[in-house]
Records
---
Amino acid sequence: MIKNNRLTTEQYEHNFSDIKPPFETQDAALVEANRCLFCYDAPCTKACPTSIDVPKFIKQITTYNVKGSAHTIFQSNIMGAGCSKVCPVEKLCEGACVYNLMEEPPIPIAKLQRYSTEKAINNNWQYFERKKSNGKKVAVIGAGPAGLSCAHILTREGVDVTIYEKENKGGGLMTYGIAAYKVTPQFCEDEVNYILGIGGIEVKYNQELGKNISLEELQKNYDAIYIAFGVGLANKLNIPGEELEGVEDAITFIYNLRSKTYKEISVGDKVAVIGMGMTAIDAATQAKRLGAKEVTMVYRRTEAEKSCTQHELDIARLDGCATIWLAAPKEIVGENGKVKALICDVMQLAEPDAKGKPLPVPTGQTLTLNVDMIIKATGQNPYSNIISAYAIDNTKGKINIQQSATNVSKVFAGGDCVNGGKEVVDAVQAGKDGAASILSFLQIKN
Ligand SMILES: Cc1cc2nc3c(=O)[nH]c(=O)nc-3n(C[C@H](O)[C@H](O)[C@H](O)COP(=O)(O)OP(=O)(O)OC[C@H]3O[C@@H](n4cnc5c(N)ncnc54)[C@H](O)[C@@H]3O)c2cc1C
Ligand code: SF4
């Protein structure tokens, strides 16, 4: 494995440019907006986890009211700009568009959402005012989508919010996890600054719960605490050879890609990516776009059981990534301390059409992939150590909540740390729910 010296700056910029470019002209946006049928029961709004009033914001675009359109979006989703770039819309709003039933392309809802919200952010159109401080103080752990969304609603109601964030930038996985061809670091920074622009939210960077601060301290100093620290590193494979040089965790691989220059990133010639979720797809496509000659995605189940969307898989395939289904990693073989091959058990379904756990074929057949890098993307591990240390009720590390409240006094939670890892738009909604519960707990009427 070598540091990336395969790409010129121009090639890198080309490979990592915006995968879903914006409308080039106002007319192009208007043509699409005018296709909307403004359905009475708006299946798109129902399919959006933050319930954005899609027909309303599209109608506002058709009447040249872009400012009002962005207001409609931000009212339901303060990260509406980021969501317009990263939402897996084929399984959300656009997947529900009635045009699909007519076998016509759905309204490009996300692209229209981007059209309005980008203008709002670029012009710093601030729509929400913070009420006068009511003296209540809330600490939020994590400046990701859930934490920011919760903080924004609380500050609107006059609560003084302090966010404790372990990294030196906000945005969470939006900044450190999602592929660079979906959102650039500059966009993430602009979006975070836009959200914080309302005032009343102090972010304390490089402050980690469990290291620099404790829950007890926060309970003493704040009226409520909202935990939104997401989930941690990728799960271990627990197979021989996992410690060899060249075996990397997908989250670390992508984190490095998002926080360093591409020349500082090591990528193999022949890469195996283990897993078939969105993280696996992002790791595979980015390894290929960084110049890996071969990338093979390995999944122990069938194609029908993949957790990424078909659209995401198509992106990986168009990038030239290969797939192997029904193959479970068994051993990593090394030479001189470095990865040389991945051996997998060939699997079969326990019962012919069962969704149960696949089993190795009875003949014990294996397959070997000669690779010099392995990226693990088989789900993420919750921060069980912190959660258990503070006796927070949980199921396998996922925090249990009731209307966003945990079992611990004054402590609320939401986002990936509760759902185990979904989408940005789900985390934004969780933040809204968390803020509503905290306001009710603090007896603040909104
Ligand atoms: C590789 C990858 C690709 C993805 N791609 C997409 C996509 O294309 N579209 C999409 O919608 N979703 C995608 N997701 C999912 C999405 O990023 C998450 O669902 C979303 O970011 C969750 O938001 P959150 O606020 O709950 O957590 P996070 O975004 O993880 O934010 C948590 C924040 O808490 C901080 N933190 C952690 N521990 C502590 C601590 N102890 N003390 C203080 N701060 C702490 C973290 O640094 C982070 O800033 C992807 C996820 C991954 C991993
Ligand atoms: S936030 Fe996402 S799911 Fe909701 S309408 Fe916008 S693009 Fe669709």
Note: The chain has three domains: 21-122, 137-232+382-441, 247-376.
---
Amino acid sequence: MVDTEERVGAGDAPIEDPARDVRDDIMDAYGVPEMLDKIWFHKTASAVIDADRCVGCGACIAACPSKSIGAGSDGLPTLVRMCTGCSACWDYCPMAGFRPERLNHQSEEDPVGPIQEAVSARAVLRPDGAQDGGAVTALLTTLMERGHIDAVIMTQKLDAFVGSPILATSPEQIRTGAGSVYHQSEALAVLNERAPEHVERIAFVGTPCQISGLRAIQKFPWERRETLAHKVVLAIGLFCTRSFDPKKLIPMVAGEGVNLGKVKKIDIREGKLVAAGEGGEELMKKPVKDFHAASLKGCDECADFAALGADMVVGNIGSEPGTSTVLIRTDAGMEAWVKAAGAFEDAPIDELSAVKRLALRNLDRAKKNLQREYDPEASMWVSYTEHLEDYEGTEREAAPPPPFRSHHYTVAC
Ligand SMILES: Cc1cc2nc3c(=O)[nH]c(=O)nc-3n(C[C@H](O)[C@H](O)[C@H](O)COP(=O)(O)OP(=O)(O)OC[C@H]3O[C@@H](n4cnc5c(N)ncnc54)[C@H](O)[C@@H]3O)c2cc1C
Ligand code: SF4
Ligand code: SF4
């Protein structure tokens, strides 16, 4: 159980507390009945990061009103200045404070979610480095060239294994971000940055957990602080079964005898992880399950394969190699697709059984690995106390911080 004295800061006089403002705003505006526990970042970290459950979405960094959280040198969120205990890192973490299945109205009967149109698409001018049909890059560059968006928050490949989040403000920058990297870049963190003045309409590209974090911040904003989330007019999700920790994946691929210097692209297709070279030649092709030890443990708790909260979701499953499967979910998604007409060759998809199979597989996996109840009907919010009770005694229970972090907390929390 959480120590109440510790939570409120033993002996503290009443203070003008930014935490209360954030939570009170949410409660007042949305009638959220109870938002229990006051949480400092070190508690989010112990339940998520130090318990090896973090999926690197960056929502905690985006949501922190005092910009106290940044990306650490180990690739995980870390405290960069004093924590006010406002609890936002907890509330907006899809692995902790809210239920993505409730936010996204996930249904077991229809795990793929609402679809207005399903197409196989290939960019007419397929960008260099595109992962599949280049649909995402072609859509975004065309929307920007035609004046419909001003910027894109996306993940740029630094090499075949590692990506970095950027706010792209030109079609050239978008093109350099073509291709997938199976690494979580904490892209949502960009929402907490300043954008150039002219940027009013932003598109966001991300994995389903990132889309959930984005939607949570958009749907439950607070009055005294703005992030760039309110400027995001188009959310493009990517199908996702899991992501990887490059620090673990790189040595495993090298261990297969692959010359890492030659690897230009990692792909996951039909259950195989493929490392490909400059000309697309296969350097390695092995079952994805052989690399399970390098995947993010938190992904096993994620039920959302098909980015249920996105305006559209893109992947390769269900389409021929070199084309992208695009499921358009919302009016905003449809409007964007129509505005980019001419940028693709596309054909309708009538049959989504492969997508459905993977969506169900993610759902089953999550139900097995989540230590709390998977429940789309339950309260949106999960308190820290509930979390501790649900995870206590399991291999995912809250863990003490490593020494470098605990020193940091003593100083800054
Ligand atoms: C971690 C991960 C797992 C995936 N798993 C599957 C899967 O199991 N089945 C499936 O069908 N498809 C999966 N995909 C999607 C697939 O790899 C392609 O991204 C998708 O088909 C779009 O291809 P494209 O050619 O249209 O996109 P492109 O035109 O190549 O553009 C790709 C876009 O994705 C963005 N991006 C790249 N990497 C990341 C990242 N790590 N996080 C956020 N955004 C990123 C880039 O910024 C770019 O805008 C996965 C993608 C990722 C990142
Ligand atoms: S899962 Fe996302 S929100 Fe939660 S701690 Fe990790 S980066 Fe932050
Ligand atoms: S499997 Fe889920 S948690 Fe893991 S990266 Fe993909 S969307 Fe995020």
Note: The two ends are 20 Å apart (CA to CA).
